[in-house]
Amino acid sequence: MMTDDLAALRTEAEAALAGAADLRALDAVRVAVLGKSGSLSGLLKGLGAVPADQRKERGAALNRLKGEVEALLEARKTALEAEALTARLKAERLDVSLPPRPFAPGTAADGGIHPISRTIDELTAIFGSMGFRVVEGPDIEGDWYNFGALNIPDHHPARQDHDTFYMPGTDAAGQRLVLRTQTSPLQIRTMLGEPPPIRIIAPGRTYRADHDATHSPMFHQVEGLVIDRGITLGHLKGCLTDFLRAFFGISDLPVRFRSSYFPFTEPSMEVDIGWNRKTGELGGGGDWLEILGSGMVHPKVLANCGLDPREWQGFAFGMGIERITMLKHGMPDLRPFYESDLRWLRHWAADPLAPASLHEGI
Amino acid sequence: MKFPLSWLREHLETDATLDAIATTLSAIGIEVEGIEDKAAQLGSFRIARVIEAVQHPNADRLRQLRVDVGDGRELSVVCGAPNARTGMKGVLAVPGDFIPGTGITLKLGEIRGVKSEAMMLSSREMGLGDDHSGIVDLPEDAPLGESYVKWAGLDDPVIEIKVTPNRGDALSVRGIARDLAAAGLGTLKGWEVAPVAPAYPAPLQWKIADPRACTWVLGRAVRGVKNGPSPQWLQDRLVAIGLRPISALVDITNFFTFAVGRPLHVFDVAKVAGTELTMRMARPGEELLALNGKTYALTEEDGVIADADGAEALGGIIGGEHSGCDEGTTECFIECALFDPVRIALSGRRHDVRTDARSRFERGIDPALLPKALEAATRMIQELCGGEASEISEAGAEPAWQRQATLRFARVRDLGGLDLPEAEVVGRLERLGFTIAARDAAQVTVDVPSWRNDIAGPGALAQDPSLPADRARIAAEGCAEIEPECDLVEEVLRLGGLDAVPAVSLPVTSAVPRPALAPKQVRAALARRVLASRGMQDCVTYGFLDRATAALFGETPDGLHLENPIASDLDQMRPTPVASLAMAAARNAARGFGDVALGEIGGAYRDPAAGISQLAVAAGVRAGQTAANWAAPARPVDALDAKGDALAVVAALGVPMAAVMLTTDAPGFYHPGRSGVLRQGPKTVLATFGELHPLVVKALGLAGPVVAFEVFLDAIAEPKRRKKGLPDLPAFQPLRRDFAFIVDASVPAEQVLRAARNAEKTLVADVVLFDRYAGDKLPEGKISLAIQATLQPKERTLTDAEIEAVTGKIVAAVTKATGAVLRG
């Protein structure tokens, strides 16, 4: 049973709660009713003065009232919070059309990987899956490594085609120094440096004194070498076909092998891929495009490196990195590769956060 | 080399199509570079007659023709040629025909109101010359309606091939025919030459004074010759292969060069001084005025053919102007000699003379062919120029070229990857001219034909001198045994085309492949990605640049100066990729892109005389301003941007940051006051960074700030493959305290940070600089550095007293180390 004063208190509290427009006002109501010197607290404190026979009943009524007021307070608080959130959300506005803040400390967050670097990464991933390791060597190379050991003696007509850059002086072994004209010296360095079986690729910079629309005095090649027992020309064909199809992403890319000649391989062959001369599209089209040279490692090259050709044989290949890059991406011109023109770089760059990997696809 | 199909057919009996011939040539290793087939291009053009030519009604310069096509049709043609006239015969193209000279396909047209149903062609429009003064004017007897190219004899396709350096024998029409016949495309026709009876003693005698100059030479004179122009067929043939007809005698020598690969030379006997032609090495100071009009200063390494007056020819390469045949020649002397391929190659390269003779002699010619070729040439001279032949003069002797090679049948499969019946293996060799010397179930031994000096030929090894003697010997023995066999395997395979060899994927060596990259290579790849992810464009620049620019960036030793640069601005190997990137920044600025961030992983070159010639460097250049954005204004790049790049690379590559020390002794291409060196220990330089020196910036034509860095990838030790320890995860919350110190502006911030870090290592987990102030609120020469220290209790929550104690230690340490005063 609620006495009148309690009923009045309740009515008063309800009105105050309803009138509380924000959380601060609500808290004032809480303090006024339930605080240390609040009206309800006062009544509870005064319970001792109530006659004993009424005390129990009044006490129960007061506690019930307290619970009710607390519930009302909580409900009002929830409502007010919801209102406040709505109001805040209504007021808070950001122009989301603003460009994001650049995160990099540099000029713009537009860095990228050069197409040559990217192709080398892709070569590495594909040949790596076939058990090849990557080896590297110096740009300034002794001429025995670049020519002599590769069965290109000084008088060889092939030397004239190489347009070699010469450096003054000699290396420690007295060899004449050149800027390497091919990555093939890595065949020699590898065979001298480790026992077979060998599977390596050697991507890197090469130099020839030739400069026009389709030649750059510096360019890149990748050399490949497989030495083992029982490696045949069939493996050469299989390995290069597997590579070319993976690299260009065309599972039925036509690949053709034509007899040719290189001083450091025998038999030697040029490798062509199918394309359409008119559209530049790879695959079908009925035309052939020469893409790389290869062959079974010449017995002289093996013997020059101390390997007995009766025991060891294998194949080698070399291809132009720019060339396969241009073909893969339909890039028309060689010269911009080395120009560092920001616009060109931005256009052709690869994403540094998506390195070449077979499991993500190349 | 070029040759017309009709010439090939003189040596090859075949009904193969041009297409089949071209395809087979490519398959067997004689690359077809092009085919000029006028019949295919111009075959549809027919001979037509102009019935009537009248003035075009609406155009002064045009004529309106009625043309008789020859098949009963009459077409209307509008024509601008001034020579178009009634009754003439010319060449007609009809709609649908491709006009090579204009590159367009003809369509029906209407020109100024008059229908034009066809086109009368000029020479230029047919791609047959430059004449465009009028339409082709054919003689009256040209057959109406006939194919023009056929009537004009232009329907002989010319095939252009590229012969590899090993195949001297394929630099001749007969050699090509032999290969095609062997590949199954027909039969090689016989070539019999009956000897010419001598009519008088040879007026000149050969003498070989030095066997280095020549090993065997034959010669013969023909007197009473009349040396006029060659007959038309010979001229046509030479023109077809790109040679200029000169005179019958000279044309005959060129004919044999191409027909059978046997270069010859003819001397005018009247111009030779004395009666002896000597093969010797050139004498010091000797010169030769050659047939190409150039004078060559000969060396003692050049073999010459000399008369009493001196050198008359650079043997095997080019003849001399003085003793050559001309219109007035009445007695010629044919030279048919054998020269050392190596000497020819070296002499040719030394003097940069490229002749048809040289390209054959340096590949090696058929040594057994000399007598026959001499007889054939004598006959042809007599046929074309008349005269009678002398006795043959000879010096030296035919070299012992005979040799054998053995092929184990299994090797075709084990090396060549192709299972081929033994009979086919032997058959292919026989068709190429090899003869069977011995054969059993396992192998065949063949005699190598004289023209194939690329098979089982001599040739020294160039073994690594540091190989152990035994290993070198065994390898050399193995090579001697295997090489001739490889030669034969190649011959057998190429004749059938390599498409016949089944492709086999490489056997798997390990189910899961090992990493393809060595740790050092991984670091280079990672550095590249780090830079790119920091907004730098990965670049690839030349390793060489001009010496003056190189000198701005470091040393330019002579050992890195190219002997034969392709251009003077590409003559020096760069001391650092920063040089190339700074130049690239300048090029971009010149295009209107002054704000760039360029990186490169590339070589920095050092004098090879000092040992290592190349360092792997990750370098970068930033120029101009940061990109302005709405949240932060643009600002000029500064050295700390470059430091950030360098540190990012160094950190990504696993160098413990605590070990990195900074010194300020950066190379001279940096601004001395705004650059630094990152080191690991006092000796190892990891990186340099800084603003480029103002003089360098100016020299490159750049404006504004340019900063750069280089990280020396070789200097970074391979991270130890230690297992990581467990992480330290204290249960207690860290607390942070801020301090602001006033210090002299000259005090490096790093000193303040290090002092604070080291003040109480058990509690101070981290110290960062969060503000730096320099301005008028502070006394002159002072700055304020505000740091925040993170205190990490490990055992229990810190009491106020403990916190008080450690902050006191921090203040004391910083004050002691730097003279700083805590800001009030």
UniProtKB/TrEMBL annotation, chain B:
Mg(2+) binds at D454, D487, E490, E491. The keyword Signal does not apply. Residues 39-149 form the TRNA-binding domain. Residues 730-823 form the FDX-ACB domain. Its EC number is 6.1.1.20. It is found in: Cytoplasm. The keyword RNA-binding applies. Its cofactor is Mg(2+). Residues 400-503 form the B5 domain. Transmembrane segments: none annotated. PROSITE patterns: B5 (PS51483), FDX_ACB (PS51447), TRBD (PS50886). InterPro entries: aa-tRNA-synth_II/BPL/LPL, B3/B4_tRNA-bd, DNA-bd_dom_put_sf, Fdx_antiC-bd, Fdx_antiC-bd_sf, NA-bd_OB-fold, Phe-tRNA-ligase_IIc_bsu, Phe-tRNA-ligase_IIc_bsu_bact. SMART domains: B3_4, B5, FDX-ACB. Keywords: Aminoacyl-tRNA synthetase, ATP-binding, Cytoplasm, Ligase, Magnesium, Metal-binding, Nucleotide-binding, Protein biosynthesis, RNA-binding, tRNA-binding. It catalyses: tRNA(Phe) + L-phenylalanine + ATP = L-phenylalanyl-tRNA(Phe) + AMP + diphosphate + H(+). Belongs to the phenylalanyl-tRNA synthetase beta subunit family. Type 1 subfamily. PANTHER family: PHENYLALANINE--TRNA LIGASE BETA SUBUNIT, PHENYLALANYL-TRNA SYNTHETASE BETA CHAIN AND LEUCINE-RICH REPEAT-CONTAINING PROTEIN 47. This is Phenylalanine--tRNA ligase beta subunit. The lineage of its organism: Bacteria, Pseudomonadati, Pseudomonadota, Alphaproteobacteria, Acetobacterales.
